[in-house]
Amino acid sequence: MSHDLTFLGAALVDSILRGLDPTPVSATGYRAESGTLAVGGEAVNGSITAARLGLRAKIFCSLGRDLAGDLIAAALDREGVDTSAVLREDRPTPVSTLLVREDGTRRSVTTGAHRYNFHPERYPDRFSGSRALVLGSLFRAPFNDPEVVRGVVTSPAVGDALLLADTKLPNFQALTLADLRESLPYLDYIFPNEDEALYCTGRTDPEGAADVFLSYGIKNVIVKLGAKGCFFKNSRETYRLDAFSVPTVDATGAGDSFLAGFAASLLTGADHPAALRFATACGAICTTALGATGAVKDRGQVEAFLASRPDPIWG
User: Helical H runs in the chain?
Assistant: First the structure.
């Protein structure tokens, strides 16, 4: 079976606390507004959203042989994501603790399990045959090793597939664009957020940051600006699109939904402006519920959301 999208990268469980009250109620006890468990990680979030948007989505990730790994595998199967490429290994599945503020922004706590580097480049048969591949995310395991990145993007298994890469700020291992210099020209699209773009380029302005990414040979750059929208640039086109105003509950996974929405729109023949608008809608909808995959339900929901909004003014 061929696939529309294959997502390579992290898979984990999120323990989400919203509205933590810093005042103790006992010697060791605290209260929060709510607490929940959700599957997460860039590859999980993206593949589930893509499947809900009607794409044939596949995931290539590593899960431990533990309860957290079982939860993720069951969630992916339930959503119709192809899990035939998933590795089950004798190691802990990462579990993150997310502290969500009232405005939807968050802090996260990671552990040593998050630094585990599996080697997708050693299993090219597991990511062949897709129209597009998503690396989620550069600078985080497994893509915080330049040799792993190079091994994937230069693999004959990629074929004519589009290569898209999200980014994250490094957590356990420092890495820069210069360290990935050999691999970056293979990327068709890169999706840093504002903080990641600043880290990578030293530029605070989206266009200046995009120019730095383009200078490394990346073909298209989309800087995600959160509540300020997004900025797109390639050698021929430049666009800036405002975000949609929605009641924000939790921003976890909004960038992953944005990327999945962009890819889903692009693969159905949309041009860049239409794909950006669809992606922005997916990111906005994602923030209206707790967890990275709690809000985006299907393509019809996103299309109805867009139909209820006025046509955008492009910057």
Answer: 42-52, 67-78, 146-153, 194-201, 206-215, 254-266, 272-286, 299-307
